[in-house]
C-alpha cells in the first residue's frame, strides 16, 4: 500500500503478512479522497477509522493534514503496527484496541468522518448495527458522514440515513449522513 497524497505522497508501507487485513486498494482510496476533497478541507477534520487494520485510511488522512485521527481495531498486532507506523511518519493518530461495537456504544466521540472497513463477509445485521450506533449516539458533527467500505455483493441502500454509494472495482463506499 502507498500514501496517495500529502506530506508522505508516494510513500510505500508494507504491513506484516500475519495481519488479518484487506487494505483498501490505491485506486479506491484515491477515488474516495477525490470525493472527500470536494466536500471538506481535510486539515480541519476529525476522523474515526473503524476496523482500521493496517491504518491505510488513517495514514492518508494524516498525510493530508488531519490532526485529529482515531484508529480503532480489535487486533493487537494491527494496533501495534499502526502505532509504530504513525510514530515513524510523525502522524497524529491515536490508536485504540477495542471491539468496534463496544467502542461505538461507549465512546463519547464526535467526528466529521467516521470510516468503517469491516470484513467483506460481514452479515447485513452487523452493517446495520454500525449505522444504528453512529446515529443513535449522535457521533457525527453537522455535515459529517459515515462511510462504509464493503463488497460489491452487499447492498446497504436500504439502511437508514443512506445517501449514496460509489463502486470502484470490487469495493463499494456507501455514504450516510
UniProtKB/TrEMBL annotation:
InterPro entries: DNA_methylase_N6_adenine_CS (IPR002052), RNA_MeTrfase_RsmD (IPR004398), SAM-dependent_MTases_sf (IPR029063). Pfam families: Cons_hypoth95 (PF03602). GO terms for molecular function: methyltransferase activity; nucleic acid binding. Keywords: Methyltransferase, Transferase. GO terms for biological process: rRNA methylation. This is 16S rRNA (Guanine(966)-N(2))-methyltransferase RsmD. It comes from Christiangramia forsetii (strain DSM 17595 / CGMCC 1.15422 / KT0803) (Gramella forsetii).
Amino acid at each position: 500500500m502507498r500514501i496517495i497524497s500529502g506530506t508522505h505522497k508516494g510513500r510505500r508501507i508494507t504491513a506484516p503478512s500475519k495481519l488479518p487485513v484487506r487494505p483498501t486498494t490505491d485506486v479506491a482510496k484515491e477515488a474516495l479522497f477525490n470525493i472527500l476533497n470536494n466536500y471538506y478541507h481535510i486539515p480541519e477534520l476529525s476522523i474515526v477509522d473503524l476496523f482500521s487494520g493496517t491504518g491505510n485510511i488513517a495514514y492518508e488522512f494524516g498525510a493530508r493534514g488531519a490532526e485529529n485521527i482515531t484508529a480503532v481495531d480489535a487486533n493487537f498486532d494491527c494496533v501495534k503496527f499502526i502505532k509504530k507506523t504513525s510514530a515513524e511518519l510523525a502522524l497524529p493518530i491515536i490508536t485504540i484496541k477495542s471491539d468496534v461495537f463496544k467502542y461505538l456504544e461507549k465512546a463519547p466521540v464526535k467526528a466529521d468522518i467516521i470510516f468503517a472497513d469491516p470484513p467483506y463477509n460481514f452479515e447485513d445485521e452487523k452493517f446495520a448495527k454500525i449505522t444504528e450506533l453512529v446515529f443513535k449516539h449522535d457521533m457525527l458533527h453537522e455535515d459529517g458522514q459515515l462511510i462504509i467500505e464493503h463488497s460489491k455483493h452487499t447492498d446497504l441502500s436500504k439502511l437508514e440515513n443512506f445517501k449514496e454509494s460509489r463502486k470502484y472495482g470490487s469495493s463499494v463506499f456507501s455514504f450516510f449522513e
